[in-house]
Amino acid sequence: MKRGQRLRRWLVRHRMHLNLAALFVCGLWAGGLAWMTRPDDIGMTSVASPICCFRAVK
């Protein structure tokens, strides 16, 4: 029982930091998804594109 109370107190104490971290991670995920699915009109040179690129570089 003590363990659950300690965890609950810790979560309440660090709620703002956890929310900011979750917002940051979601932003990175959304940005990565938007970058991988961008239209073919926007091109990058093969030097600047990462190895894990999903679309073909022309």
UniProtKB/TrEMBL annotation:
Per the record, the domain of life is: Bacteria
Q: What is this protein called?
A: Uncharacterized protein
